[in-house]
Amino acid sequence: MKALIPVAGAGTHLRPHTYTQPKPLIPVAGKPIISYIIDDLVEAGVREFVFVIGHLGEKIRDYVQAKHPDIQQEYVYQSSRQGLGHAVWTAREYLRDASEVFIVLGDTIFDVDFKAIVNEKTSCLGVKKVDDPRNFGVAELNEHGMVRHVVEKPRIPKSNLALVGLYKCREVSELLAALDYIIENDIKTLDEYQLTDAIMRMIEQGVTFKPCTVKNWFDCGQKDILLETNAMLLKRGAFASREIPHYENTIIIHPVNIGKGCRITNSIIGPNVTIGENAKIDYSIVRESIIGSYARIEEVVLHHSVVGSDAAIRGLSQSLNIGDNTEIDFGKL
Question: Taking the CA of residue 295 as centre, how many other CA atoms within 13 Å lie in the half-sphere pointing to its CB?
Fold first, then answer.
């Protein structure tokens, strides 16, 4: 089995952070989004990975090569973003020899048993019931509980089963043939080549897809969901810092994740705060926030904020969304 992880998106909803940092590398509860995906797949037995990269893709490649050297890695550059179907089609030459393909969106954290999906004897689609399915791919089931129809973002949904970004395909040659067909015939939905259209063609040709329900999933493409996911993972305990060094005149309200080399003085930190390595915080209150590595925060009250790496903030009480390499001094305004 090969895992295909598309990470070519520009991450426009998380700007300014994604001007300098790919969305999959934004830290949540102490490690980048993409590491959660890789770790879960490795634990499920997957060792071969294909990454479809684009915007700032060299940073993703450098990170994965440094932090996950034990997995087999291939990288494909998607020069133009034309939909998930196009992203998978771009990597077709790396998938032809695979017995199975597990496609996982690279900006999403999943609460699901990956091993159970890997061990399924049929192809699978990750699904979950949602209140408003119009912004998702949608799956409809037949009388036997198998997927009979999929469509991308329907205006009038006939089901509330949303596709969450997990696709396991055992019929690899049929998948690639279906993708070839929609690309060659310029079949687009919402002006993009959709993976759902290829899957629908496979279903019409007799391929069986089983729905696999996820407990939850977190598309970390927006600030609010990013912070919600950070808090959820920290509260689970496994991702929170357990041994925290003494910081001068500082109160720590758990759960938090504090990176190595941080200098924190005269502050209150937490709850639900992630701080990257070598950050410096002084005379500040920080809660419900993510602070990047090497950030410098002085005389600030921050809540529900995302502060990028190497950013500097002084003298403020606000909710912010600050990108990398930014410096703000409100004392001079």
Answer: 30
Distances (CA, A) of 156 to 45, 97, 130, 291: 39, 39, 14, 41
With 0-12 / 13-18 / 19 or more C-beta atoms within 10 angstroms meaning exposed / middle / buried, residue 174 is: middle
Query: What dotted CATH number matches 240-332?
Result: 2.160.10.10
> Contact 240/231 with Cβ under 8 angstroms?
no
pTM: 0.84
Q: Where are the domains of the chain?
A: 2-221, 240-332
* pLDDT value, residue 328: 66
For residue 292, the model assigns a pLDDT of 87
pLDDT of 159 strictly over 60: yes
What is the CATH T-level fold of the domain 2-221, as seen in this structure?
Answer: Spore Coat Polysaccharide Biosynthesis Protein SpsA; Chain A (3.90.550)
pLDDT at 4: 97
Do 296 and 279 meet the contact criterion of CB atoms below 8 Å apart?
Answer: yes
